Amino acid sequence: MSEEVEGKTGEYFSDCATARTSAESKDMKLALRWNQFISLKVRHYLFFYFRRLWEKSAELVQLEPHEEVPQPFENSAKAS
């Protein structure tokens, strides 16, 4: 650890020096909106990833698809 930053905690650094954070970084409403947006994107990504994983697994063990893969996040998206 560099001597310049030893013992400093809770600081924001830019270009190897302490810096002030932007007003946006302290905006809780903006943080919550960003979190909701990211959570939705992650849920969609995971659904499609696990669907492809299921389909490939079924193909490898030669299962016959008898029904659609359930959509686990469909109800939670409506509740949000």
Q: What would the keywords be for this entry?
A:
about 80 residues, mainly alpha, two-stranded antiparallel ribbon, 2 strands, elongated
What is the averaged pLDDT score? 78
- Kindly name the structural category: mainly alpha
Main sheet record? 2 strands, antiparallel
Termini Cα gap: 43 Å
How much β-strand is present in the residues? 5-15%
Radius of gyration: 22 Å
Tally of helical segments: 2
Uncertain segments of ≥5 residues (pLDDT<50)?
none
Shape: elongated
- SSE series: EEHH
Kindly state the percentage of residues in helix: 40-55%
Task: Write down how many β-strands occur, each being a DSSP E stretch of 2 or more residues.
Answer: 2
Strand order of the largest sheet: 1-2
Structural notes for this entry:
With 80 residues, the chain is mainly alpha-helical. Helix content is 49%, strand content 8%. The protein has helices at residues 28-60, 74-79; strands at residues 12-14, 17-19. A hairpin with a 2-residue loop joins strand 1 (12-14) and strand 2 (17-19). The chain is elongated and about 60 Å long. 0% of the residues are buried.
Summarize the structure.
This protein is mainly α and 80 residues long. 49% of the residues lie in helices and 8% in strands.
Write the layout of secondary structure elements.
Elements: E1 12-14, E2 17-19, H1 28-60, H2 74-79
Antiparallel strand pairs: 1-2
